[in-house]
Amino acid sequence: MFRIIAFSLLCVALFSSTKVEASSRKIPWLYEPRTMPTGHVEYEQYTTLKTNKESDSDYEEVRFRHAIEWGVTDTFQMAVYFADWRYKKTASEERTYFHDVALEGIYQLQAPGPDQLGVALLGEVKYGSEFLELEAKILLEAELDQVNIIYNFTLEAEWEGQDLQEDQGKIINSIALTYQPKPSFTLGLQAILETPIPDWEEFGDEVLSIGPSVSWQSDSWWCCVSPIFQVTNVDSAPDLQVRFLFGIDF
């Protein structure tokens, strides 16, 4: 965790004064309803730390995602996550393993602007060994001068195990408030409410996490980081999660 934070602070020192690039991400836990220009290509690196479970004092997990994104048209972009892998430590095991590959598409219905609400739809398919997940999102953004309000509604359906017999769902409501004092620097506050649906029969314990974010945008690459803290009391969920995103434009 400390290495992630240290690297993020290094990004502050080096790049907080550079120019902004339109494709940069400003918040790690939510998507904005913005798409790349036609032909634009970008590499994105995700690193997510999960730790501090009341049910397992040894729990620590780090998830890595590697993606290539490109603008198919000015209102439609796609991404290939070609290597999603994880390090996981619990009271009973410690291992590093490949988890899945994924394909994602974002279609912008309306660009965000001072006089209109930004709207986009996102779909993603993840596939791995004894694992399949389908994800759909509605992305909204309201521009209020230097302050933006972003909302994501997410529905996930997941199948695991031999013959994919274990199924479950999840609803995620996420909202963020961002403040951009200058084009290369953005501050944010995010809240994520996760509602699991085990076996698609009844709702499980809801988990609410809240935390700040900070991002820096340059003319060729960008980075952002956000710790979020569980404010509910679900022992099986991590109390702390930290996500760091890094992107390079081509």
Short structural summary:
This protein has one domain: Porin (Beta Barrel), CATH 2.40.160.40. Helices cover 6% and strands 66% of the residues.
State Rg. Answer: 18 Å
Round the mean pLDDT to the nearest integer and report it.
91
Tally the beta strands.
Answer: 12
Shape: globular
CATH homologous superfamily assignment: monomeric porin ompg
| Tally of distinct domains | 1
Under CATH, the topology can be stated as Porin
Which CATH top level class fits?
A: Mainly Beta
Uncertain residue ranges: 1-22
Strand order of the largest sheet: 1-2-3-4-5-6-7-8-9-10-11-12
The helix/strand class is mainly beta
Beta-strand residue fraction: over 45%
- Compute the separation of the termini in Å: 29 Å
The helix-strand sequence is HEEEEEEEEEEEE
Largest sheet entry: 12 strands, antiparallel, barrel
Q: What's the number of helices?
A: 1
Under the CATH scheme, the architecture is Beta Barrel
Helix content class:
under 10%
Task: Give your account of this protein's structure.
This protein has one helix spanning 2-15; strands at 41-53, 56-73, 76-89, 94-110, 118-128, 131-144, 147-160, 166-182, 185-198, 207-217, 221-230, 238-249. The longest helix is centred in the first third of the chain and has 14 residues, at 2-15. The protein is globular. Residues 1-22 have low confidence and may be disordered. The chain contains one helix and twelve strands; from the N terminus they run H-E-E-E-E-E-E-E-E-E-E-E-E.
Question: Keywords for this structure?
Answer:
mainly beta, 6% helix, 12-stranded antiparallel β-barrel, 250 residues, 1 helix, Porin, 66% strand, disordered N terminus, globular, single chain, 12 strands
